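Appendix B.2, paired examples.
Example (i):
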Amino acid sequence: MHANITLADYRKLSKELPFLEPFEECCGSGLVDTLYIEPMIRRRASEKWRSCVVQCLKCRRRYVTRWD
């Protein structure tokens, strides 16, 4: 996983990327690397949905997907 990211930077990045369902394949590969996890700043612990930015290990495309 890469260095920490601010909430504002994460939101900007995640809006630019396509969504990938968990366990969905990209270019025939289901292997992804987690780059960033959505920061918990200004979030309640009871909020269930959290996202992360992942990258396909084969073609290097980036996506947003559910973390939880």
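Example (ii):
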Amino acid sequence: MYLTKVKQEEEIVATTISDILSDAVGFANRVASKGDSVTIYEVMQSLSELEVIGEVMSFQAEGPHLQFK
């Protein structure tokens, strides 16, 4: 599982959990605006919470996001 966090400055503005890495990246590309920080973590679901295994990737968004249809 993958946890995607999108931050504007220091505020988290969007998160999602995905089973597939390409879905996590796709989410980030849809919602992030230029200059936002995107970090994707590999996570594991325990009984009570998500446990972060490690950071998979991070990047700065390069363009405006596409509008949801």
